[in-house]
Design goal:
With about 120 residues, this protein is of the alpha+beta class. The protein contains 3 helices and 4 strands; from the N terminus they run E-H-E-E-H-E-H.
Length: about 120
């Protein structure tokens, strides 16, 4: 049985930020810039609070069975809620989406590499 890499994207919006919370997010914005976005087991958060109140968390996990994908999605969403709650940020409109990379079509470079290995 082959393992599958699952990428979970959790999106939402900050809700009712106080001035102090907004200032804290702005002060820490450089660490959460989209340039540092990555799908990791620990999770990666990005936002641009100066432009809009939205955030994105990215998580990655491997599973052996596609039946585990809903659980992975739920764990990603729960991790995002935990982070927000621990930091005192109210949120709204939370959604989570999972992508099974084994089902993602290869791009041109991937097709060339596969052909070269065959």
């Amino acid at each position: 049985m082959s393992t599958r890499t699952i990428r979970v994207t959790v999106r939402g919006a900050f809700d009712a930020l106080t001035d102090a919370q907004r200032t804290a997010l702005l002060d820490d914005a450089a660490r959460h810039d989209v340039a540092y976005a990555a799908f990791t087991a620990e999770g990666s958060m990005t936002y641009d609070i100066a432009a809009r109140p939205f955030f994105t968390f990215r998580y990655a996990e491997t599973v052996d069975d596609e039946r585990d994908i809903p659980a992975v999605t739920a764990r990603g969403q729960a991790a995002a809620v935990r982070w927000l709650t621990c930091h005192g940020y109210a949120h709204k409109n939370l959604t989570a989406q999972a992508v099974d990379l084994s089902q993602t079509p290869l791009g041109k470079r991937g097709r060339k590499e596969t052909a070269r290995q065959a």
